[in-house]
Amino acid sequence: MRGNVVELAVAVVVGAAFTNIVNAVVKGVINPIVGALGSQNLDHYKTCLTTCPVDKKTGEFTDGIYILWGSVLSAALTFLITAAVVYFLMILPMNKWKARQDAKKPVEEGPVDPTEVELLMQIRDALVSQRTGEEPVAGAGVGTIPAPVSTEKSQD
């Protein structure tokens, strides 16, 4: 649990620290590159939902309802870059470091769980003892098949 809390704290701190850098890279480099594919900066891309009159001199909408989808795309790019920086520069190295630390720890030898065969033999012994009314003997009949018990009542 502590590892996850540390990872979350690191992500918040690094995300906050890199926000200004990422915003500058997106606005200064990525938006103009994406805008070069179109006609303007990415922050100016918008779509009109209603009839929107356009100013003929500036080419901007003067009235109406419009969606600023360029700003949303810019924010999504900012988020993706921030997430990639946090993951690849902080979370991934921390996980590798924790894996190396766990590999260095000595393996604790505890009681070994019984195998399926051993469990089945115990069940078989318990069923046999239940039929005959005897207490099961630990390890009795290991590797052998018990003789069938007759369930017929004798007439004396």
In short:
With about 160 residues, the protein is mainly alpha-helical. The chain has three helices and two strands. The protein has helices at about 1-35, 70-105, 115-130; strands at about 45-50, 65.
Can you describe what's shown?
This protein has 156 residues and is mostly helical. Helix content is 57%, strand content 3%. The chain contains three helices and two strands; from the N terminus they run H-E-E-H-H. It has helices at 2-37, 69-104, 116-132, and strands at residues 47-48, 66-67. Strands 1-2 form a two-stranded antiparallel sheet. Helix 1 runs antiparallel to helix 2.
Which terms summarize this structure?
single chain; mainly alpha; 3 helices; 3% strand
Topology:
Elements: H1 2-37, E1 47-48, E2 66-67, H2 69-104, H3 116-132
Antiparallel strand pairs: 1-2
Helix pairs in contact: 1-2
Q: In order across it, which strands form the biggest sheet?
A: 1-2
Mean pLDDT, nearest integer? 76
SSE string: HEEHH
The strand count comes to 2
